[in-house]
Amino acid sequence: MKLTLSKGVERHKRRSHDYGPPPMSIHAVSLLLEAIFLKAKSLQHLQRFKEAAQTCKVILGIVESSLPEGLPENFGADCKLQETLNKAVELLPELWKFSDSPHEAILSYRWALLHKWNLDAETTARIQKQFAIFLLYCGGEASPPNLRSQMDSSFVPRNNIEEAILLLMILLRKVYLKRIEWDPSILDHLSFALSMSGDLRALANQIEELLPGVINRKDRYHILALCYYGAGQDLVALNLLQKSLSSSGDPHCVPALLMASKICGEKPNLAEEGINFARRALESMEDECSELEGTGNLLLGVARSAHSKSALSDFERVTRQSEALQALKSACKTTSMKDPVILYYVSLENAEQRKLEAALYYAKSLLKLEGGSNIKGWLLLARILSAQKRFVDSEIVLNAALDQTGKWDQGELLRTKAKLQIAQGHLKSAVETYTQILAVLQVHRKSFGSRKKLHKDHGYSSRNFEQEIWHDLAYLYISLSQWRDAEICLSKSKAITSYSAVRNNATGLLHEKKGLLKEALEAYRSALDIDPDHVPSLISAAGVLRKLGTQSKAVIRSLLMNALRVDRMNPSAWYNLGLLRKEENTASAMEEAAECFEAAAILEESQPVEPFR
Fold it and tell me: pLDDT by residue (tens digit) across 150-203?
């Protein structure tokens, strides 16, 4: 058969009849190969998958060894040779999958796609799609392909996801060129693959390249909005959603309204729009499920909470906070306290309003519902307990969380534990805990690189987190008057990034502790140049100006009022404002000072070791 095929190809290429007749006719070879294929199919029917795969492999081995350069076009057109070959190439990987041989299946897929079998476009597309699906969901990691035939500059995938993305993008390109029909599942699998790899911007590019009419306008806007939101471009996503919700689109599309509310609710300056979107979503729901209604009330509560932070008066702020809590409780009731996200936010809102017993109840319910699987739940519970000054209980919670958490995800838990140790005066233990975090981060960086996220719930990289740990250590050493150690920590921070409001604030505090007030003020101003709303720098700058006595009290008061505008619950800001009013030594000023000191004392009693949010 091999000799017949090789001689047949030579005759086909040279269009010559000078060669001797082959041992068999091409038609006879075609019949024999078809018989082998039918044997493989019979073995498959008998569920003898490994034997079937080995039988099917014989067909491809015969054709490849006799035609190493591939099968020419229109060869064997007068018989079923090409049809049998197409079926065998497509069947072999499936047989290896059924025989639980993933490595052989992957090799068969690559063999099918890299050798020149002269397959038609539809068959090749089906194989590419099935291979991509197998790579994404097989549960094992394949070795990278050995593409010796590729140019040096060609892209060679390093893992399953990259190889699957490459295959799916090739399929999309074929759709653009109208070589194959549109298949919506291609985009579904590509969305999953690019989401897993964290490259949602690339997915947006692929969707933008789709020809008009492939997917409808509303779905295109919604998918693009999800991509840009996942890529961190919130305003671009919001703009797309607004187009989708315009009068020419679908103004009552509940998923788009909910997503728009979510984006706006995360930004205080857009919170009012977020409230409107959430209300529209709730009004547009007709006999929807309770979970969707719960999500609408959740987003309404989150937006109202964000909106309360921009209130000008205490009455307005308290009213908005009450409305936020009411919406969140309504969401909780609608979902029968079975939605962990809603439980988290209702606990968080209660904690921020210093309703600590209610916050503790919802945090415990959250932890019980999730079975301790989410770090955010552990952290919130520990912070609520620390606000109640139950430091020992808080540390017990963190130790339990650490026992159930993988090493790479322990950073935030250990950091909170270190701050608990500082609050209890165990400074040496806190230094050891921070050192442990830095050791883990160093191993993490060597293993995964500095851009790898610590875990899925955190949007910052291990490098950014490391910088925050150096800042914490610097503050700790400053409190111990270990100036040299603090300076080393600040230099380590500067090596990561030269622009940091927190580092400038720590530098200013270091100068202030040394008695260098002018240098301290310069550092605080540098911090405010980077972040005008950096609360610790606003308070510290006001404190230094008060000590220097070179600025009017109106300037100092303005700094403190700005700090309270950003963080109304900051006890240090209220305390410093009280000191400022006390210096005026008038009856009304003394009365205001007393109120400020009282507010500071009350807030200090319920201050967590770390912000709740």
Answer: 545 556 777 888 889 989 999 988 988 889 988 889 988 988 888 888 778 888
Q: How far is residue 151's CA from residue 301's CA, in Å, rounded to a whole number?
A: 56
Q: CA-CA distance, 420 to 382, in Å (whole number)?
A: 9
**Torsions phi, psi for 563 (to 5 deg):** -60, -40
For residue 276, what are its two tokens?
């409107």
54 half-sphere exposure, CB direction, 13 A CA radius: 4
Phi, then psi, of 143 in degrees rounded to 5: -70, 145
Q: Contacts from 334-340 at CB under 8 Å and sequence distance 24+?
A: 334/290, 334/293, 334/294, 334/297, 335/290, 335/291, 335/294, 336/290, 337/365, 337/369, 338/369, 339/291, 339/294, 339/295, 339/298, 340/366, 340/369, 340/370, 340/374, 340/377
In tens, the pLDDT along 355-388 reads 999 999 999 999 999 998 889 999 999 999 999 9
Contact by Cβ (8 Å): 434, 473: yes
List C-alpha distances in Å: 352 to 113, 136, 290, 380, 386: 58, 42, 27, 11, 13
pTM above 0.85, yes or no: no
pLDDT in tens, 249-265: 788 889 999 999 999 99
Angle at 591 between CA 589 and CA 595, to 5 degrees: 110
